[in-house]
């Protein structure tokens, strides 16, 4: 799990999408009937239900087309706009996603899932102060949401409000004692502050929460390797990139909020022949071409 929340806060996953599919609705609008506004809205809700189901199976393009039509047929339904906005975010159409989510918020200003989704979207646009504002607004209404606390911590982290970030991460862990990404990110901050031993402690804790979490294992490997415990660093580094080879990519690490100091030290470990060999083995092998008959 990357140490920022996934871009798609799909509102079906957050429990927002709960409209039952109308029993009499059809997938497409019959051309032979002149439908009234209520019937049109029912058709829109039916299409939105289909879109939500398609999204669950990661068929986002099909889901998006249905959600777009649903928003035209049911323009006053906040859930339809929320679903559309989340699908736009999934497709990294951030501006369209924000506009749809703002429309949803205008229809349902107290819906925390919408506020959290807007916070996520603005974070992706590197608008960290605005992201924090939306996340704070949602947390005032629902303060026990570990994921949103974590996201707010990330926004504060990017704003260099480190103590506030740590406070949010710690609160997230109180809400969810297995939420290792929050513990991991405290380690990221401590390392950038020069508190290497404190960072190591956080990463050891994160690994104890989830032995298959690649990120804290790699961070721990980097810290140990650069402290001089090179053998242990290489052992942990190998295990981390075997678990998830994406963590062998410095760009991926930066996207997951690794700071400059940790990235510089990670480069030393990742460039060692032993880790490079492990990464090479982890890459998918091309399928051999059959000789022509």
From TrEMBL:
Pfam families (alphabetical): TPR_11 (PF13414), TPR_CcmH_CycH (PF23914)
The keyword Membrane belongs to this UniProt entry's keyword annotation: no
The protein, known as: Tetratricopeptide repeat protein
Lineage: Bacteria, Bacillati, Cyanobacteriota, Cyanophyceae, Leptolyngbyales
Keywords: Repeat, Signal, TPR repeat
Alphabetized SMART domains for the sequence: TPR
Taxonomy, superkingdom: Bacteria
Domain Cytochrome c-type biogenesis protein H TPR: 36-174
Source organism per UniProt: Trichocoleus desertorum GB2-A4
First and last residue of the signal peptide: 1-25
UniProt repeat feature TPR, residue ranges: 78-111, 112-145, 146-179
